[in-house]
Automatic annotation (TrEMBL):
Organism phylogeny: Eukaryota, Viridiplantae, Streptophyta, Embryophyta, Tracheophyta
PROSITE patterns hit by this protein: CTLH (PS50897), LISH (PS50896)
Every CTLH domain range: 80-108
Species: Zea mays
Record's protein name: Glucose-induced degradation protein 8
Domain of life where this protein originates: Eukaryota
A Pfam match: LisH
Xref: SMART domains: CRA, LisH
Length: 201
């Protein structure tokens, strides 16, 4: 991503609109890797990015091991991750009472009160199809609700509700799409391996 920005800047300063219309600049793998070596990313920043992902997504064991191995301290107490994941599991499995109790333990001021009242209303009806909130029992709705509750708990703990890593990958994809209009260059097409593919000339 950082490299793509540098190349975009370089291309903007070198190529005129007339030359851009006729052909794209070709950046070889050697040139690309030379530029890549000039980009300095601190290991601490990368470690914080990984820890942010593990904490936000709720991988408490992995976050604890990563803390020990890298020396990177999480922004929140790792015990709260376990509590948050228990709430999420309770919502996903439809265990309303357990979810309410755990949310109360985490955040007794109940910013979630309206949603919980709707959910508790399901308990009043023997035939939930007749309940005005019957759609809450749908599995897809449970997953959506669990995700929203997870985000709300993170926000209440003054933590970002979304991990930074997926946003950075989206930014990388956008940057590459912008760069595609101006140059042929070693591109990352498979984000799982981050392998560079030589430009097609």
């Amino acid at each position: 991503m950082f490299l793509s920005r540098i190349v975009l800047r370089d291309l903007d300063s070198i190529d005129s609109p007339a030359s851009m219309a006729s052909s794209k600049k070709v950046v070889t793998r050697d040139e690309w890797e030379l530029k890549l070596r000039d980009v300095k990313i601190r290991k601490e920043d990368m470690n914080r990015l990984v820890m942010n992902f593990l904490v936000t997504e709720g991988f408490v064991d992995a976050a604890d091991k990563f803390r020990i191995e890298s020396g990177t301290q999480p922004e929140i107490d790792l015990a709260t991750i376990t509590d948050r994941m228990e709430v999420k599991r309770a919502v996903q499995s439809g265990n309303v009472q357990e979810a309410i109790e755990k949310i109360n333990d985490l955040n007794p001021t109940q910013t979630f009160l309206e949603e919980i009242e709707k959910t508790v209303a399901l308990l009043v009806f023997e035939d939930v199809k007749n309940c005005p909130y019957g759609e809450l029992l749908d599995v897809s709705q449970r997953l959506k609700t669990a995700s929203e509750v997870n985000a709300a708990i993170l926000t209440s703990q003054s933590h970002e509700k979304d991990p930074k890593l997926p946003s950075l990958l989206k930014m990388l994809k956008w940057t590459q799409n912008q760069l595609d209009e101006k140059a042929a260059y070693p591109r990352i097409n498979d984000f799982t391996t981050a392998a560079l593919e030589d430009p097609s000339i």
